[in-house]
Amino acid sequence: MAAAAAVSLRGITKRFPGVVANDAVDFEAAEGEVHALLGENGAGKSTLSNILTGLYRPDEGEIAIRGHVVSFSSPREALDAGICMVHQHFRLVPPFTVAENVILGDHRGEGRKFSVHPRRIERRVAELGERYRIAVDPRARIWQLSLGEQQRVEILKALYREASILILDEPTAVLTPQESESLFETLRVMADEGRTIVFISHKLNEVKAVSDRVTVLRGGRNVATVATSEATPRSLAALMVGHEVSLTERVERLVEIGEPVLEVDDLWAMGDRGTDAVRGVSLTVRSGEIVAIAGVAGNGQRELAETITGMRRPSRGAVNVEGRALGGGDARAAIGAGVAHVPEDRLHTGVAPSLSIASNLVLKSYRGRGVAKGPLLRLRTIRDHAARLIARYDVRGGAPELPARRLSGGNLQKVVLAREFEGSPRALVVASPTRGLDVAAIETVHRYLRDAASSGVGVLLISEDLDEIRALADRIAVIYEGAIVGELAAAVATVEELGLLMAGGRRE
Amino acid sequence: MIRIERRLVQPKWLSVAVPVGSLLAAFVLMGIVLLFTHHPPLHTFDRLLRAAFGSEQALNDSLVSATPLIFTGLCAAVAFRMQLFNIGGEGQLYAGAILGAAAGIALGDHTSWLSVPAMIVAGAVGGAALALVPAVLRAYFSTNEIITSLMLNYVGALVVTYLIFDSESYWRDTSSPTAKVFPQGKPLPDAASWPVSHVGSLVIPFGLLLGIVIATFVWLLYGRTRFGFEVQVIGDSQRAAAYAGMRTRRKILAVMALSGAIAGIGGASQDGDFRHTLDPRGLTAAAYGYTGIVIAALARYNPFAVCLVAFLLGGLQNAGFTLQGADFPSGLVGVLQGLILFCALGGELLIRYRLRFVRTPRASEAEAPA
What we know:
The complex is a heterodimer of chains A (about 500) and B (about 375). Chain A is α/β, with parallel strands linked by helices and about 500 residues long. Chain A has 3 domains: about 5-240, Rossmann fold; about 260-340 and about 425-508, Rossmann fold (3-Layer(aba) Sandwich); about 355-425, no CATH class. Chain A has helices at about 45-50, 75-80, 100-105, 120-130, 145-160, 175-190, 205-210, 235-240, 300-310, 330-335, 345-350, 355-360, 380-390, 410-420, 440-455, 465-470, 495-500, and strands at about 5-15, 20-30, 35-40, 60-65, 70, 85, 165-170, 195-200, 215-220, 220-225, 260-270, 275-285, 290-295, 315-320, 325, 340, 370-375, 375, 425-430, 460-465, 475-480, 485-490. Chain A has a 6-stranded mixed sheet, with helices on both faces. Chain A has a 6-stranded mixed sheet with strand order 16-19-20-13-21-22, with helices on both faces. Chain A is globular, with a radius of gyration of 24 Å. The model of chain A has no long low-confidence stretch (mean pLDDT about 85). In chain B, helix 1 runs antiparallel to helix 15 (about 330-350), helix 4 (about 90-105) crosses helix 11 (about 250-275) and helix 8 (about 205-225) runs antiparallel to helix 11. Chain B has a domain at about 70-300. With about 375 residues, chain B is mainly alpha-helical. The radius of gyration of chain B is 23 Å and the shape is globular. The interface of A and B includes residues 310, 331, 341 and 375 of A.
């Protein structure tokens, strides 16, 4: 890397009340380089990128762009300096067209004019899409696009503004393996033109596949910057967590598969937009078995989980638990029948965030005999119950009276799991149970799920993380546009085959 | 440089210190207003406090002013706890006053043992019925309850005025020729007068005691029961409530009915405790419902704090009435009330955030060539 540093951060420190998010971080990325920023959740990756894009101001340290020290007082100044970011949650306006979104906030060029010329912008957007092989119809409206296509729009936005430094925050979360491949190719082309790509991730394989160098953050500090060619996934993982780890590998369980506990038969349900989100799903989960639903985000997984657990009314079809049909759209009935649910959005669905941990641990059992006496609650019993579960499930930093939102993601998930397991479920529907958790917490959650299956619960695991699915599942069903397009035994499933199915390709 | 940071822990003493501090700040700001309008601040405050709490007569009058505010304050607090913004306490109070007066008149002059409970029930039914209109619209058609309940206040005001001034209704006194020319409500029979109790030289209206009983009931209901637990969960996260299998729609209906019923009893108390007739002019001029919203906000939805704040604001209102004249504009108490609310809501910020004073290490001096 002889080229001049396109970006260099020196001694960046950013404090938030109670935490030092970045502690004297040095970071340098050269022109024409794909530089990965690797770290667990809470390692300070997002803070660092927010400083680079002008959203936060550092407490200490300085930023230099191509050798000049700068101080951004707003994201607009960072944009002017050629820094663009593709956020994990896209910053797009759904009812607007691709072209309109591209010029949105572009206060220098086309977007500044009183009247815009859609034709010209559309032509330019089409041109860029062509050149970088990320073509999107410039006249399509954002809401009509898949998440993968929306990501392309974000990248087009950066290209249109002639950004020289592009930051991508976990860009592959919404992509199939094949789509990720093609994203990497696009990034390479951009880097070869002399742009700087900062690629934020916690997935080691991707970092290995796309980057030239890797900077590993841990606990807010830069623990290492290494050339990717000299690193192995194992050595990176060790840097990331600070000690040797076993990568999520398949752990064999003693499986005693029993009777079907959860049977879904030709289930249809509408999404929030009023279109069919779940289209004729049929599947069976037997006692002791972990069945995974793999798929790219937004293919009806959330709606499927909600319909099975009674939060959403099916338009057709049936859900049977241990042979008995559940009334559709009745969460209380599903809970009563022994269907536990670990929802995707654990902070606002899985718990009531401002209520105490104790209250959240009885969120589903508050009607029961042990917790209530007539209309009155047994407050002492509730508190003792909470103290017991906090100890048993090792909820760090937890106290019965503490509001649930004060827990970290991993510990919050332990609270949800503790509550769901306490209800002695027959079937367990878990959606993205480890999203946003660090390696240690992922291990714990996986262990709990395996234990649940071993004790005879039928587990339906809905996840976008193929590593997780391959580590846990006995069978894998792939969902695409609300329908199951294939089912494989986990032992024989390959990533390529799963990826093909996730993209809607049929099995031969 | 001042920085605002989120507090990681909220110390207990703050929840007392901040309201008291806000109150003091409001008085300081009020002092500035008084200076600008050429009223000596300290002297004015002295008069105000004396007129509110300084003598037996003043205290008794303040208790009278506080009574309806307890009801409307609880009405707002009960609904706001579930993020259900019932702004209709005003109209629900009228509805309670209408039905309460009807019950009092209909039962005639027999016994208070029958008339008083009947008026309470009738008032509650009236308030609840009116509150159920926005409740049903919200629960089944996702209509914004703020708008619908607010609009019903105007309906309520027009109906209660119509009953006395624009019709020969059951409530209107038509017994004498003068009453026909100068419309007024039928006087309620003596049996419909609510009892008073005496503590020393203080006269405690029955409605005040009833309000405190209801406050206790609400406190128990929300803190100790399954119903209250569901209200808390729904108020915090509707999705979590749906996830836990709670019946949110029913809860919306129940909470709005409860909220309306409390305001309605407040209306019946106006008939039975104080006015002894259906008095549209007095009721609509007083704007108890809107003051109740202010009280609920100041009390941070705590039912006992509602009683306390109602007494405080009731006292100030009472003092305003007593003192208004050439040297004391009637708007001054309103200004003070507004300032108190303003400071209290500003003070909320201090409960959740803290200010940190930092010496500016770098602001623009780090700006370098580009």
